[in-house]
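lol forgot to send this yesterday, sorry. C-alpha cells for the thing we talked abt
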C-alpha cells in the first residue's frame, strides 16, 4: 500500500471524525501525517500512537484554522518539522443550524469564518511550499448541501458552496504550477457532527439515499486517498460527491 509513499499530508480538524479517518488511510498508504485541531486532547495522543503503529511519522498541532496568523504559523511549523507539504486537506468544519428567522449574526459569522475563511488561510500559507516543490494536491471538504442547498442550513450551505468557488478558482490559478485543487462533497456521514440528529430525521435522510445507508468516514477517506495520490494527476477543479447517490 504505497500510493502516498514519500508524501507529507496536513489535515485540519484531523483529530476525530472524517479527518481522523483520512489521516489513518493516508498513513496506510505510506504518507507522513501532520494534523491540526483546536486543542490538544486525548484524541491527539491516540492518533499519534495509531500513526506511529502504522510506521509513519505523525504529529498533531493545536491550531485554530479560522485564524489567519495562527494558520500561517502552524503551516510553517509543519514545513520545518516534515521538510515539505504535498497534500493539504481542508477538513475542519462546524455547523450552527437554524432557520434564517432564528439565525443570529454570530452563528452566520462563525460558520463562514471556520468553514470558509480557514480554507483561504491554510491554502495561502501552504501554496509557497507547493510552488517551490512544483507539485501539490489540495482537497477541500465541501458538502452535498453546498451543491444543492438545505433549509435550516443557510450559513453552512453558503460556506460549503463558497468553498467550491474557491476550489475551482485555485485549480485555475495554480494548475500551470502542477498544483491541483479539488473538493469532496460528502452526503450524510455518520460522525459526531451528525449524531446529534434525531433518529426520525436520520431515518428520513436514509430513505432518500439510493444506497440506503449513511456513509462512513472511510467512504470519504478513500476518495481523499485518490485525490491526494498520483492516481488523480489529471483531475483538478472538480467536486466529487460521496453521498451514496443522494445528489443524483
Ligand atoms: P466532526 O465534528 O466529527 O470533526 C470536525 C473536526 O474539526 C473536530 O475535530 C473539530 O474539533 C475540528 N474543528 C472545528 N473547528 C475547528 C477550527 N476552527 N480549527 C481546527 N479544527 C477545528 O465533523 P466531521 O463529520 O468529521 O466533518 C469533517 C468535515 O466534513 C467538516 O468540514 C464537515 O462540514 C464536512 N462534512 C461532514 C458531513 C457529515 O455528514 N458528517 C457531511 C458533509 C460534510
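and heres what i got for the seq, position by position
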Amino acid at each position: 500500500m504505497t500510493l502516498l509513499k514519500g508524501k507529507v499530508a496536513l489535515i485540519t480538524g484531523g483529530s476525530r471524525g472524517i479527518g481522523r479517518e483520512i489521516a489513518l488511510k493516508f498513513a496506510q498508504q505510506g504518507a507522513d501525517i501532520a494534523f491540526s485541531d483546536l486543542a490538544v486532547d486525548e484524541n491527539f495522543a491516540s492518533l499519534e500512537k495509531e500513526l506511529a503503529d502504522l510506521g509513519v511519522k505523525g504529529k498533531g498541532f493545536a491550531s485554530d484554522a479560522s485564524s489567519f496568523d495562527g494558520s500561517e504559523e502552524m503551516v510553517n511549523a509543519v514545513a520545518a518539522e516534515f521538510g515539505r507539504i504535498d497534500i493539504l486537506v481542508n477538513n475542519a468544519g462546524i455547523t450552527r443550524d437554524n432557520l434564517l428567522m432564528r439565525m443570529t449574526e454570530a452563528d452566520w459569522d462563525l460558520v463562514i469564518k471556520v468553514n470558509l475563511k480557514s480554507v483561504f488561510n491554510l491554502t495561502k500559507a501552504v501554496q509557497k511550499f507547493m510552488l517551490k516543490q512544483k507539485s501539490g494536491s489540495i482537497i477541500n471538504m465541501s458538502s452535498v448541501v453546498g451543491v444543492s442547498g438545505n433549509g435550516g442550513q443557510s450559513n453552512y450551505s453558503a460556506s460549503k458552496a463558497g468553498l467550491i468557488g474557491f476550489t475551482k478558482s485555485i485549480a485555475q490559478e495554480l494548475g500551470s504550477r502542477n498544483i491541483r485543487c479539488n473538493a469532496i462533497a460528502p452526503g450524510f456521514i455518520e460522525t459526531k457532527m451528525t449524531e446529534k440528529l434525531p433518529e426520525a430525521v436520520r431515518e428520513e435522510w436514509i430513505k432518500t439515499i439510493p444506497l440506503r445507508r449513511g456513509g462512513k468516514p472511510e467512504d470519504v477517506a478513500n476518495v481523499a486517498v485518490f485525490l491526494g495520490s498520483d492516481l488523480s494527476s489529471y483531475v483538478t477543479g472538480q467536486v466529487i460527491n460521496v453521498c451514496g447517490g443522494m445528489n443524483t
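The mean pLDDT is 97. anyway ping me if u want another try
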